[in-house]
Amino acid sequence: MDVVVEPGIGWMELNEYLEPYGLFFPLDPGPGASIGGMCATRCSGSLAVRYGTMRDNVISLKVVLANGDVVKTASRARKSAAGYDLTRLMIGSEGTLGVITEVTLRLQKIPQYSVVAMCNFRSVKDAADVAIATMMSGIQVSRVELLDEVQVKAINIANGKNLPEYPTLMFEFIGTEAYAREQTQIVRKLVSEHNGSDFVFAEEPEAKNELWKARKEALWACFAMEPNLEAMISDVCVPLSHLADLISRSKKELDASPLVCTVIAHAGDGNFHTVILFDPNQEEERREAERLNHFMVHAALSLEGTCTGEHGVGTGKMKYLEEELGVEALRTMKKIKAVLDPNNIMNPGKLIPPHSYTVRVYRWEILDLYHYAQLMCNYAKCQRNKVNARVFSAEGVLPHEIE
Ligand SMILES: Cc1cc2nc3c(=O)[nH]c(=O)nc-3n(C[C@H](O)[C@H](O)[C@H](O)COP(=O)(O)OP(=O)(O)OC[C@H]3O[C@@H](n4cnc5c(N)ncnc54)[C@H](O)[C@@H]3O)c2cc1C
Questions:
Q1: Which element (helix H / strand E) includes 387?
Q2: Read out DSSP for 204-254?
């Protein structure tokens, strides 16, 4: 089951079109997101835990390259072992390698039946532990979302609700009626074994929508709490087994900050978001928001995770690419970019950090004349091309070094 679309269509419009056919496209990022932007950012959403991300749901693309070539990246076949995977090269390239003009998407059947459940915990760690236990139990949930107590408070303020202001997990179970109910009861037991309480679930469409509405409007709810502030929204992602550790460390730091910070996580994927509210006119608040973001990224990287699970690196997080992937991977990305877009006309300044040339000379005195000449020649070339260049020795930066 697949569909061929142009990149400007929104995922919500597409799903309205598909509904009469009993089909849907199972990615649900921001309400206004278009399929082209979703491909370019390798986006996902709350359903990724069941259906995967854009990487898993795009069959092929048509892309216009910088030199005008129009490339079809794959056939319509469900699987293929033919050549390099150009589809996946383009997915997540943030418009830096070409312009996507056509997309073939994999579709899913609308589930027969679903149950939505909600429960509370004393700590975010307990909530994260249940998300992990649920995934480890093999239950095929379609959504596992975690909200901390600050986020629940924001939802209460924004919607005039009276939800218990504790760390909260929300689940969706799908399948046949019997299967969805059976999964609900298994998770209910897991919740009670991990200090969870107030387990409620809904099966009627209206009641289910009411429960999900709280989650879907979480970001806007933050602004209801602090209408005059701006939000720095950041996300990181770690292997599921490290999620509880990441959340505990980050939550401690966020709670200690003078800024209001909320936590929302696609917990079944190990994907953790924060909304950090700050006054853009107060420089120290902006710096504090950046510090918290930096802290979270480093916590995730130290736990074998990534600096961004969903939102791409754009310009803000490209500085973390080398730390996350290593210089060799980054160098390979730069080579791909240079070959496909030699004049740097495709989203210049995004994703690929500016070139730099660093040479570390551990024992300067053993460098022979030939290697010294080669080094200086490369250094001069960098300067001619306005590329940052630094030459280090064990004793520090050389006196004639200019950045
Ligand atoms: C309330 C809210 C909730 C969100 N939740 C999620 C979530 O759960 N998961 C998630 O992953 N994201 C989420 N997002 C982020 C958002 O939905 C994504 O950033 C989205 O994938 C981008 O789509 P867009 O159409 O807005 O793209 P744009 O912002 O317009 O573009 C994004 C990038 O893609 C490039 N691009 C756009 N079209 C093309 C094209 N045709 N060819 C090549 N490059 C192109 C642009 O140049 C740009 O670099 C959320 C956002 C909001 C506001």
A1: none
A2: SHHHHHHHHHHHHTHHHHHHHHSTT-EEEEEEEE--GGGHHHHHHHHHHHH
Q: Say what the pTM is.
A: 0.87
Pairing of strands 356-361, 388-393: parallel
Measured CA to CA, the distance from residue 5 to residue 355 in angstroms comes to 36
DSSP annotation of 400 reads T
Closest-CA residue to 339 (of 15, 10, 69): 69
Q: Report helix angle 177-193 to 124-136, nearest 10.
A: 140
Distance CA 383, CA 312 (A): 30
Confirm if 187 and 267 have CB atoms less than 8 A apart. no
For 13-70, the pLDDT digits (tens) are: 999 999 999 999 999 999 999 999 999 999 999 999 999 999 999 999 999 999 999 9
Task: Determine the distance separating the centroid of ligand 1 and the alpha carbon of 39, expressed in angstroms.
Answer: 8
**Residue nearest ligand 1's atom 32 by CA:** 37
The fold for domain 113-302 equals Vanillyl-alcohol Oxidase; Chain A, domain 3 (3.40.462)
- CATH pick for 2-109 out of 3.60.15.10, 3.40.630.30, 3.30.420.40, 3.30.465.10: 3.30.465.10
- Note the Cα 98 to chain centre separation in Å: 21
Q: β-strand 396-397 against 388-393: which pairing, if any?
A: antiparallel
* Separation of CA 350 and ligand 1 centre (Å): 14
Mutate which of 41, 54, 57 for ligand 1 pocket (most atoms within 8 A of beta carbon): 41
399: confidence class by pLDDT, cuts 50, 70, 90: very low
